[in-house]
Amino acid sequence: IRIAWDLIIWRQLKSKPGQVEFKALKQQWEHQKESLMSRIAAHHEYACHYWVWAYAAELTYQQQLQKTLTQTPKPLDSRPVLQAAFCIDVRSERIRRNLELQSDAIQTIGFAGFFGLPITYQPAKTQVKRPQLPGLIAPSVKVSEQTPNHKKLTKVSNASTWKNWASSPVSSFTMVETMGWTYAYKLIKDNFFSKKKEKLIDEFTHHHQWHISHNHAELSLSEKVNMVTGVLKGMGLTNTFASTILLLGHGSENRNNLHASGLDCGACCGQSGEVNVRVLTSLLNDPAVRTELHKADIHIPENTRFISGLHNTTTDEIVCFDALNNADIDTWLEQASKQTRRERIQLMDAGLKDLDDVALEKSLKDRGKDWSEVRPEWGLANNASFIVAPRERTRGLDLQGRSFLHDYDWHSDAEFALLEQIMTAPMIVTQWINMQYNLSVTDNTFFGSGNKLLHNAVGQHIGVFEGNGGDLRIGLAMQSIHDGENWRHHPLRISVYIAAPKQAIENVIAKHQTVRDLVDNGWLFLVHWSDDNTFERYQKSGWKYID
Known about the structure:
Mean pLDDT: 90
Number of strands: 18
Strand content: 15-25%
Shape: globular
Distance between the termini: 51 Å
Number of helices: 17
């Protein structure tokens, strides 16, 4: 719009008799064009010193990470009692590690948070649809509940009508003058008597039976089996199955937050992963699907139960949607949550470190319910690496909540199709996330969204203004990356460590222009992690050994 406005003024001045103003403007424009290259050169000379320091910080982090990766990992029993699949989100790294510390019989798995389901979710009897997969992928399957919740539908319809009226221009004064006082009860209820689970978990989705369709036709049994087979192979769950397997999406508990989707699951298009894990669990517990999986040489024992749940990233609580019926697992999950909360506040919220476990849990829950809280959690702040390797190589290692962890064993990926999927989808998404944080720190005025306290929604969901005008703001608010005294994110380009043959990695780079652009132009570091714990960085000229 502003460029178009400049063009209009340019043409207007040009059309005036004598063109006095136009000639002066054109002369200034020509002078700017002539000096453009020298200005760019001056900027480069000014910035190059900062680039050197930034590069040094990245190499320092890589040295520290590689020192950790070469440590001896924690052993795993050959027959695990519990397997738990988490999203690769960096917030999962801490709770996975602390869960594994409870017992050698616990195995955790890292997989993209949409769990490989290319779905869009449409609540039954509604026209509303929302994608539950990364923005890189188009949904091909629609899911909805077989039995709609009519009470919930009525409640949501009434709330939607009220919200639309309350947000309309004509209600600006009449709504406040006639109905404003009724909000007193709602404010008190929301802040002091709210039920946490109703806020974190979507009441629509409290179902075990799902209608799954493609092109308006219900998915056949063979199509369901093909979809599930791909998911199990992607997670590496094809040979060993525990008696209890948790599929854990994640979501953030917060209120009155225009940036809430940035704290939920990026792999689920800014939603929680609840729908995905519920749908996948229903398929994997389906006897007909299991029978067909036997024919694909995937033998799930009869006593194996898949249980869906959510990792609440605000409180680090794990909420399971079905009873575990196992006191040991309940204890393990509770202890892992306590240890993760304690570890997280030491690094990110030191002001809470003097609280005991009970008070700390309550404080974090209250923070999530507080509509005036500008930092309900720190999200993916300080992310710095993406590790694609078997969990056996990182199990028990302290990666400080800075690493995306994707399970991958190249020995089971004969044609490297799974490696190609990882490098062309999760790797790209993690780079997006990493650069969003980096740019919001390095230039918050241009690439960030400024002060969250001043944000106003535009058109309810289009974007935000800072204050009452200006450009739409992009990126992260200062409160998401700065605690008022110190930065909570260090802007390092993401370092991708892949445990796979170098030739297979090179083949993916050569095949996909998008990947090649990221690697060759320095938007990320791509490092080969060998079986004997050596590291080589990919460059156009070839692999370079790094110490």
